């Protein structure tokens, strides 16, 4: 009698599982983890205090409607709370969008070096991922519009984009939206919006407010320092938010994430300090790396992409060289960038150590 094992849906086994940035060095050495775009300042003390206060209530289910968190987000950002959806990281919300709106025969469109979760979400639902070429590692609106077909159902736009750090202006986002058929849902993934200080950039709330086929996603994992708790949120039109509520888990945001998120979003002084640290180091690192002969696009996030192609050195070898010194950067070959490494802005000490180690590697 032959033994059969359960068979997953078609296409599931074609998915390459997502692998996050490395967090360990060799042996027990102390490492500077600069591979996952986490903030070097950690979380707000107020967020940590809120988690401690939760200790006597661990036997209780969290608020299934995350009302307090949605209200805090809405208050800080000037948005209607009824149009806020919270999730187990913005990753969950991105996946829920794909679950709700795409299936076999549909297409999910995104930029060439867009966030890896977009492709995974498409394939998990039997849809076809479609990548539009970029120009100078920057989203090309014309290329995206040229790739739209009658089968396109969702367009994911990371703005700023990870791992390149580049962005497109609000006018360009509006031009993209204007060129889309009304049945296509435009998802504005603004995970790094808090770091952007450009007069021509807006995270997406205005476009959501004015349209029925746009949703903006945000995260507490970056500037708020709550990556361990996995909490994200979205702002969308009534109909889209209603759909996501219908398919999310009944308690998809845990109590610790809700408590810490409420405290963190209200502590905007801490957010300003995290941004100030990032603003201090971004130009220093950019100038240092370019001075070594690395090609580095200007980034508006909390990370830099460095290209070794013109140095005669190998990015993977650079990754290993740095790792031996306890400096963990992100290899981004999986994004189609095999000659590049991505570095998160770290502490003062971490950043200086990377500069010194890279100079040593390139001069060897």
Explain this structure:
The chain is an alpha/beta fold. It folds into 2 domains: 19-43 and 269-363, Aspartate Aminotransferase, domain 1 (Alpha-Beta Complex); 45-266, Aspartate Aminotransferase, domain 2, CATH 3.40.640.10. It contains 12 helices and 12 strands. The strands form 3 sheets. The chain has a 7-stranded mixed beta sheet with strand order 2-8-7-6-5-3-4, with helices on both faces. The protein has a 3-stranded antiparallel beta sheet with strand order 9-12-11, covered by helices on one side. The protein has a two-stranded parallel ribbon with strand order 1-10. Helix 5 (141-147) packs parallel to helix 6. 46% of the residues are buried. The mean pLDDT is 94.
């Amino acid at each position: 009698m032959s033994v059969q094992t359960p068979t997953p849906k078609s296409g599931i086994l074609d998915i390459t599982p997502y692998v996050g940035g490395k967090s360990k060095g060799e042996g027990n050495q102390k490492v500077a983890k600069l591979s996952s775009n986490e903030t070097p300042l950690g979380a707000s003390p107020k967020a940590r205090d809120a988690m401690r206060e939760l200790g006597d209530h661990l036997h209780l289910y969290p608020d299934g409607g995350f009302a307090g968190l949605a209200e805090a987000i809405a208050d800080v950002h000037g948005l209607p709370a009824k149009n806020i959806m919270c999730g187990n990281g913005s990753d969950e919300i991105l996946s829920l969008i794909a679950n709700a709106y795409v299936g076999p025969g549909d297409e999910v469109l995104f930029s060439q070096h867009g966030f890896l979760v977009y492709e995974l979400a498409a394939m998990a639902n039997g849809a076809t991922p479609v990548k539009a070429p970029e120009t100078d590692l920057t989203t090309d609106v014309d290329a995206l519009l040229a790739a739209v077909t009658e089968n396109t159902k969702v367009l994911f736009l990371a703005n700023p984009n990870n791992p390149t750090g580049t962005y497109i202006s609000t006018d360009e986002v509006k031009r993209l939206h204007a060129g889309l058929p009304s049945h296509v849902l435009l998802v504005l993934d603004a995970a790094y919006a808090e770091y952007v200080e450009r007069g021509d950039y807006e995270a997406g709330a205005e476009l959501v407010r004015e349209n029925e086929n746009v949703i903006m996603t945000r995260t507490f994992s970056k500037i708020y320092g709550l990556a361990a708790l996995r909490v994200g949120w979205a702002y969308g039109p009534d109909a889209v938010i209603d759909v996501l509520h219908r398919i999310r888990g009944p308690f998809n945001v845990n109590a610790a994430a809700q408590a810490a998120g409420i405290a963190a979003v209200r502590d905007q002084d801490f957010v300003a300090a995290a941004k100030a640290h990032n603003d201090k180091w971004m130009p220093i690192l950019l100038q240092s790396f370019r001075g070594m002969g690395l090609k580095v696009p200007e980034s508006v996030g909390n990370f830099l992409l460095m290209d070794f192609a013109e140095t005669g050195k190998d990015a993977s070898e650079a990754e290993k060289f740095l790792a031996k010194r306890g400096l963990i950067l992100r290899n981004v070959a999986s994004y189609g960038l095999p000659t590049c490494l991505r570095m998160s802005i770290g502490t003062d000490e971490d950043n200086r150590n990377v500069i010194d180690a890279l100079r040593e590697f390139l001069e060897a």
